[in-house]
Amino acid sequence: MPNTSKTDWNRLDKMQDEDIDYSDIPALDDEFFKNAEVRVPPKQSVTMRLDSDVLEWFKSQGKGYQSRINKLLRVYMEAHQSHR
Question: How many CA atoms lie less than 13 Å away from 17 in the CB half-sphere?
Answer without folding.
Answer: 0
